[in-house]
Amino acid sequence: MPTTHEGSVPASRGGISAGSLKELIEAELYMPFPFLSNPHEPEAMAGVENWLRKYGLTDDPDVGAMIGYTRPAQLASYNSPTMNADMLQIVANQIAYQFVFDDRAEEIGRRWPSRLLPMLCESVGILRDGRPPMTPLGAALADLHRQVREHCTPAQAARWAWHSREYVHGLLYEAVAQTDPLRVRIGLCGSIRSLTAGVEPFYPLCEAAQPGELALDELSHPAVRHLRRLSADAAVWIPDLFSAVKEQRAGGVINLALAYRHEYGCSLPEAVVLATRRINDTIHEFERLHREIKPELSPVGMGYVEGMADWIRGCYYWSREVPRYADTAALPVGP
């Protein structure tokens, strides 16, 4: 059974004087989902370390340090609190892989966007055509694809690969956006962020974790499709609030809070409040639509939608704790 965090309470709107940006976010953000974690988290953490080491991804000390302060197994535990140990390990491995891949793509893309092409084309070739990998990152992706095929139905694995290719393409869009940041308005930022979020590749794993396969008409129901979009947006925009300080210092562009700051010429705390209002509206809409569609869903469909809610929940509680975003707690704001 998943475990609860007795000391945490859902975030609520306003009403207190915030001393830091982290406290401001916690005061303003609407979070109806209580904390849960997966009891298999320790095994997943050890498994991630071994898997990354096997493919040489942590041979670089900087990458090893990044994994240490990013805690991918913790994020997997919070986002997938009811998954069995095998499925949780795949989720944790994929989160770790995406952090390594994303950080490397961001570093290369910010300096030399065209040099991203071999890296991204290798990934697409592996995911779409089953081509053999040429790099350690490619070898890790090929093994991750193998794990997914072994634990998912062919249809679920195909959806996983398709969403993963979308994520790869999004990193190229982000690199192009970085070359002319003044043109990146809120709408464009949101479109690119929906791709680079890398959340939707995990939803086929939520499918596979259910006791049966979802019917196609249920999976493609307009309300279920909209719930996927709402949950993916909320799940990635919440970390954007906590990572805004880090991204601003690094010259990042594709971040919801920074997009509001650039759009309105306001301070970072003011931009965070504006972005939080949009997230709150998204979560409220998710709840409303979930209530409406609930009578029509099968037990398997309900479990699938609850998996989407788990990603909103997990990204919030992970973002509050992870050392990757520690600067958020150190930035003072006014009352």
From TrEMBL:
Q: Which Pfam families match?
A: Terpene_syn_C_2
Give the first-level EC class, as a single word: lyase
Q: Which key words tag this protein in UniProt?
A: Lyase
Report the GO molecular function annotations: lyase activity
Tell me the InterPro entries matching this sequence.
Amorph_synthase, Isoprenoid_synthase_dom_sf
Indicate whether Lyase appears among the record's keywords: yes
| NCBIfam families the record matches | amorph_syn
What is the protein named? (-)-alpha-amorphene synthase
